[in-house]
Design brief:
Length: 288
């Protein structure tokens, strides 16, 4: 995660402008003085957002001193003090909602991810995210996913090719789609084919796909065919560098993930961490 990127800093400027606009109309209710505050966790979770908070506080007021008591990816308990702030009281108030909102959201993604990753512990299966992210927050949500113990799938359409249902329909068949990608992209391009059944998966393997994504297949079908798919790759007369096959499974309800702990699966991908996670509740309290 590039915390110094101009794009990120411009994004944060937009957040500040959205909330503060031409100025905080309530700030005149207090006298200008130096205040001290802390953040308190109102439930258990995994924290995410320390580096981002540094930038937010600095952009609002360089005189805000930020003292984190936790690291990204670290567990916390209800009532734990997460960080302390010292600075102009009006600036602390101006920073409150923006900073809490993004940290609660990202910590929610990390916490949700961690709970699923724990179910995969010692299985050899990794949990990957998807492109189902909030527009404008993808890099941050994917960072939060990593803080929860997951791994990142492709960031966008530009860092891996994934052939899905519509691509197959409009290119006539999987082989055509793969051949066109190999012809028109760098030789390092990783090609993933989303297969809705085992026959499609076999077709993709024979056509030279690097990864197979088995979508919404029942555990019984996966158990019967995972080793078979690997044998298809090993027996296929393809280039040596394409002998390795990554098998990914998707379309799983996280509550049923125990049924998919099947030997031979490399990845389970889920969008639930970004689409179904709830914010973790924090509050800011002033200290005398």
């Amino acid at each position: 995660m590039d915390w110094n990127s101009p794009q990120l800093r411009n994004k944060i400027s937009d957040w500040i402008c959205e909330d503060i606009g031409n100025g905080d109309l309530t700030q005149s209710s207090i006298t200008e003085n130096i205040g001290k505050a802390c953040w308190i966790a109102k439930e258990d979770g995994i924290f995410c957002g320390i580096e981002l908070l540094k930038i937010i506080f600095n952009q609002i007021d360089k005189d805000i001193n930020f003292y984190p008591l936790i690291k990204d990816g670290q567990k916390f308990k209800k009532n734990d003090i997460l960080l302390e702030l010292i600075g102009p009281s009006r600036s602390l108030l101006a920073s409150e909602r923006i900073s809490l909102n993004i940290a609660m959201h990202l910590s929610g993604v990390s916490t949700h991810t961690y709970k699923i990753v724990e179910k995969l512990r010692n299985t050899g299966i990794k949990l990957a995210d998807t492109r189902k992210t909030t527009p404008g927050l993808r890099s941050l949500e994917k960072y939060a996913f990593k803080c929860g113990g997951g791994i990142n799938h492709r960031m966008g359409l530009y860092d891996a090719a994934m052939i899905k249902e519509n691509h197959i329909a409009w290119s006539k068949n999987i082989k055509n789609a793969i051949e066109r990608i190999r012809l028109n992209t760098p030789f390092t391009t990783h090609i993933i084919v989303e297969a809705e059944n085992i026959d499609q998966a076999k077709e993709a393997i024979l056509a030279g796909a690097d990864s197979i994504l088995l979508d919404e297949l029942k555990p019984s079908i996966l158990r019967e065919n995972i080793n078979l798919l690997r044998e298809v790759r090993l027996n296929n007369d393809c280039k040596e560098e394409r002998k390795n096959l990554i098998i990914e499974v998707s379309g799983i309800n996280p509550d049923e993930i125990e049924n998919y702990l099947i030997d031979g699966i490399d990845l389970i991908s889920t969008s639930s961490a970004t689409t179904k996670s709830k914010w973790i509740d924090f509050s800011m309290r002033y200290i005398d």
